[in-house]
Amino acid sequence: MQNVADCLSAFAIHLQVEERSHGTVEKYVRDVRRFLCWKGSKMLDKEQVSMWKVQLSVEGYTPE
After folding, report:
1. What is the pTM of this model?
2. Distance CA 27, CA 46 (A)
């Protein structure tokens, strides 16, 4: 099983292969890293995703 850093690197490479801009790659990786830090060791389920969306809204972001 890969660690988080390896998975994020692979994700960034995938985005680059898909010809995403440098800024887009940085934003997506930063957003995923932020979510993972927020999630911590909690189990990922629909309730956690809903709570993340609430957190984003509280911070002034519009979750999609």
Report:
1. 0.77
2. 23
